[in-house]
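Hey, I was hoping to borrow your eyes for a little while. A protein chain has come my way and I'm curious about its shape. Take your time with it, there's no hurry, and the full record follows here:
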Amino acid sequence: MTDPSPGGRFERHPRLTGAGLLAGALVALELALRLFAPVPLRFAHAMRGVHGYSRVARVDLRPSQSARLRIERRGGEPLFDFRITTGSDAFRIVEGEEEAAPLAARYVHAIGDSYTMGWGVDAPLSYPAQLARRLGPGLAVLNLGVDGFGAIGATAKSRALADRYPPAVAVYLFCPNDLDDDVQAAAVARRGKAAHAAYEAFDALRRASYLAGVPFALRYRLQFRAGPAAIGANGTNAGTIQTGEVEWEDPTRLLLPEPAALPAPQPDARTFASLREYRDFLQTRGARLVVLVLSNQRESLMAYRFCKEQGIEAHLFDVPPGMRIPDEGHFNALGNATVAALVEQLLRKAPNGAGS
């Protein structure tokens, strides 16, 4: 005999009830993650707060944001612990300043990726900020570096701000991975409007939800996973300048000799096309371009040769391990200070054409 009484809510509306239970579980999980999020997840969420999707360069900084970025080593010591603050024009500023730089007639555009931005150190210790203090009044320095930029993003950001902040000189710090970053940026630029809109919506979701950041937190955890904390020679974390640390008296010691043979640059590389277009753009404005080429890896030597062939002032250089964040590789505060001293010397010299 069949029971005539109606079934429970689940039997009567299984899909609706299941959807409600799933939504409730997701809300509960989101609240739990916000209350008890581990350091990698907080890092991923903070990254999304200051970064956003870019249709031109794949990634860019967001305007008027501030976030503390911290990642720990396996033993609980910080690998780095620093803050990124952006101004209304979406580039890094020194914390406490309302805008990026005082009004000036001309500016130095420091462009590039995370090495230019000063990844791993607070803004006053980045090389552009230290360069600004060295140059003094007359030339304001803009820190236009963004982690993940290649030449496409770096030059586009400078050009977009050139009317508001007229450049007297631009310093592009080329890194070997810029070629790969530009391949990805070019692929992003080819996406259609619908794809861009979908990625922008996903980017907004990641900023709003800790749960959406879990895959990225796992990636960051694996990327920055390290052994016991590497400590500087004076027993302190190498991310800050400590009393007793001394800058090199001659920062030109960072410069590398030109190799006897240089590999030919890839003729179709967007990195080099962007750099050539940027050179021409600066020339129309009477601005100088200086390219600092980091390391003597094959990609760097190709970039150096390209600059020589195009008549672009370029300098090969490298930074020793003691001036880098241990187990991570970016410049520590002393490394940033020494790079700033090198750039100051180069800028105070007359342009010398192709290479040095």
